[in-house]
Structures are given as structure tokens and as C-alpha cells.
Input
Amino acid sequence: MVVTKVTELELSQIKSTADQCGMTRSDFIRARVLGYKPRQRLSDRELDGLRQLAACRTDMVNFANALHGLNDNEKVKLFRHQPTMLEWYEKVAHVTNHVADFLQSTQTANSYPAGATNQEAKEDGA
Output
């Protein structure tokens, strides 16, 4: 146990920031001392945006899978210009992968890196 003195304003800031990160004061302080920088939880509006983004990603993946199942003649018939559609598909696949990575990272709860070295903690928190 470590005891430290803080002003009322500092304590208020610690409580507020820990709450915004979804962490206890102890976990928040421990994380900061170890060099980890906890992220604030997303607002309801941000969470709704992420849900919509996830639904768009699902639609895009379904669309890409449907394209994959078509032969070349069917693709040309459907879109009339296969090179443009192939270029679009390649760009969309790149975006959907980034969207999936982002969505996964936002669903990870804050925690402090117990047992990690100071450098590992900073890398995990970045």
C-alpha cells in the first residue's frame, strides 16, 4: 500500500478521469504510475457510431463474398465494368480490415499491465 497526499482538486480530477476510463481510482493511479495511459470510454454517441460502422462492415463483407461467388461473366453483367469493380473491391477489403481492427480495439476494457515492464506498459497503452 502506498499513501500519498493530494489536494481536493487533484482528488476530484483523479476520480473524474478514472470514471471516464471505467476504472477504479486505484487501478487508474497504478496504471499511470506504470506509464500506461488509459483511454476514456466511448460516449453513447460514439458507441452508436461504432455499431453502425460494424453493420456497414458486415454489409461490405457480405457484398464482397457475393462477388467472390460470381464467375467473371456474371460480374461483368452485374456491374458492366469489371476492372473498376475489382479495384473497388480491393480498396474496400483494406478498409474493412482496418474497421475490424478498430472495432476490436475499442471493445477492449482498460486495465493496467500487471507484471509488465515499464516499456511494455507504455507500448500497450499507446
Summary: The CA atoms of residues 84 and 105 lie 32 Å apart. The two ends are 27 Å apart (CA to CA). The helical segments are 8-20, 25-33, 44-68, 72-79, 82-106, 118-125.
